[in-house]
Design brief:
This protein has two domains: 153 residues, Ribosomal Protein S5, domain 2 (2-Layer Sandwich); 109 residues, GHMP kinase, C-terminal domain (Alpha-Beta Plaits). Helices cover 32% and strands 31% of the residues.
Length: 282
């Protein structure tokens, strides 16, 4: 079966302090978006077979999607195997949760393919064993995430949103970002309040101090007439700009590529809607 794995953006990310386990206590509002990876997932007789359109991610031992399949089969003691092919569209190390979403997509698909009785809460508990961001993608809706990111409270956003997402071609290592933040903890710049949500990312100061491309692009976006506001997603290195309308994204993208480099990753996006909801909409 085919499974879409949406990326996410962080509309805000607040770091509340250090936890006894060494992680940081977070509160972040994450929202799935229309950009994502696609996975083909099928049951086979035995074993885990994994392939990927990106050869640098084809190691089944390390890939979160393959690890999620192993965990699911082991947890429910299922005598079957899984074949996974991943078509990678979300940049790696971009603060978009691509690998985490792939893992969640595998768990969701295997629940359906094996007809396993497993509520979302149980699936999210399994997901948390693989990584802090993964439970969010089980619910496939905007959510406030707390703790290390594994405590999920789905929410309804007051407004739809759309915009342009850009990536510079390099990543910001998440452990480095948090370690650098801990050396000089300070909040990120407070942005505009849109639909009751105030944009802010507390990982911007460490990332911006090392990678000047990031604050330069954010400032450029904010100076454009189409843009409501801009923010770095997660620990970086993606930056997104929110626009008034969908129609404004094309001209904004053309200007961005003309000024910053025609080969840079730039992708229009909108809020992700679960396919069944699309079919039932009017």
């Amino acid at each position: 079966m085919k499974q879409f794995a949406p990326a996410k953006i962080n509309l805000y990310l607040h770091i509340l302090g250090r936890r006894p386990d060494g992680f940081h206590e977070l509160e972040t509002l994450m929202a799935p978006i229309s950009l994502g990876d696609t996975l083909d997932i099928d049951l086979i007789a035995s074993g885990i077979e994994f392939t990927c359109s990106d050869p640098t991610l084809s190691d089944a031992k390390d890939n979160l999607a393959a690890r999620a399949a192993r965990l699911f089969l082991d947890e429910f003691k299922l005598a079957t195997g899984v074949r996974i092919h991943l078509e990678k569209c979300v940049p790696a190390g971009a603060g978009l949760g691509g690998g985490s979403s792939d893992a969640a997509a595998v768990l969701l698909a295997l629940r359906q393919l094996t007809q396993t009785d497993c509520p979302d809460a149980k699936l999210a508990e399994l997901a948390a064993r693989l990584g802090s961001d993964i439970p969010f993608f089980i619910y496939r809706a905007a959510a406030i995430c707390r703790g290390r990111g594994e405590i999920i409270e789905p929410v309804a956003l007051r407004e739809n949103f759309q915009g342009l997402l850009v990536h510079p071609g390099f990543g910001v290592p998440t452990p480095w970002a948090y370690k650098t933040y801990a050396q000089n903890p300070r909040a990120g710049e407070t942005g505009r309040t849109l639909g009751g949500v105030t944009l802010r990312n507390d990982l911007e100061p460490p990332a911006f101090s090392k990678f000047p491309w990031l604050p330069a692009v954010k400032a450029w976006f904010r100076a454009q007439p189409e843009v409501l506001d801009a923010l770095m997603s997660g620990s970086g290195s993606s930056v997104f700009a929110l626009t008034h309308t969908q129609e404004e994204i094309g001209p904004l993208r053309e200007r961005f590529l003309a000024e910053h480099g025609a080969t840079l990753f730039s992708m229009p996006f909108a809020a992700f809607v679960i396919p069944s909801e699309v079919e039932g909409s009017v």
